[in-house]
Design a protein that fits this description.
Layout (H helix, E strand, L loop, with lengths): L6 E6 L5 H13 L3 E6 L1 H11 L3 H5 L4 E4 L16 E7 L1 H9 L5 H11 L3 E6 L6 H12 L3 E2 L13 H16 L12
Parallel strand pairs: 1-2, 1-4, 2-3, 4-5, 5-6
Helix pairs in contact: 1-7, 4-5, 4-6
Length: 189
């Protein structure tokens, strides 16, 4: 994959940790990737609480912007051309719906497009503790080929700020997308 040509859908759902999605959009922009955003209603609420940002701010960080109810958007179809999707942060409700094959909103439908078209799909759950039904849903997603990348920062790099911890997770997301980055200190440096 050539980063400058990579088209990534980023869905921001209502789980805590919206800063991960914001930082990911910023990093994808710096890598010259095309960014399409899906923002859920709850995602917008949490975004405002946690970061003070509004939907208009996120819209400016993308080339295309959709609400979760926009089921007639081009990305709801397999004929739409895009390379990867990251749900960041991903609610356990969204993860469970995707695992169960439920496509009642754009986030879930685009995720199912990724699965059926064999495109890269990354879910970034941000929930703790995780109950048995959610663990089963995450395991089912992994069995389907989804990359489950929990928002769990590492501490071997001795993070000094929240930004350092956020950058670790976002850097790992970029790694699995095949995008070079130096957002975090890698093991052994």
């Amino acid at each position: 994959m050539v980063a400058g040509k990579l088209h990534v859908i980023v869905a921001i759902t209502g789980a805590s940790g919206s800063i991960y999605g914001v930082r990911l959009l910023d990093a994808l922009g710096k890598a010259s990737c095309k960014r399409t955003v899906i923002l859920t209603d709850d995602g917008e609420k949490v975004l405002g609480i946690e970061t003070g940002l509004k939907a208009a701010d996120i819209k400016k960080m993308s080339e295309r912007f959709f609400r979760n109810g926009d089921m007639d958007s081009p990305i709801a179809s397999g004929s739409s051309r895009w390379d990867a999707m990251v749900i960041c942060p991903c609610t356990m409700s969204s993860a469970s719906k995707i695992a169960a094959g439920i496509s009642d909103n754009l986030t879930c439908r685009a995720a199912h497009v990724a699965l059926k078209e064999r495109r890269k799909l990354v879910v970034v759950p941000r929930e703790t503790p995780v109950g048995t039904p959610h663990l089963r849903a995450l395991a089912a997603l992994s069995e389907m080929g989804v990359i489950v990348l929990p928002a769990m920062p590492a501490f071997y790099g001795k993070p000094k700020t929240i930004d350092d911890m956020v950058n670790f997770v976002v850097g790992r997301i970029l790694d699995v997308l095949g995008i070079d980055n130096d957002l975090y200190q890698r093991w052994g440096k």
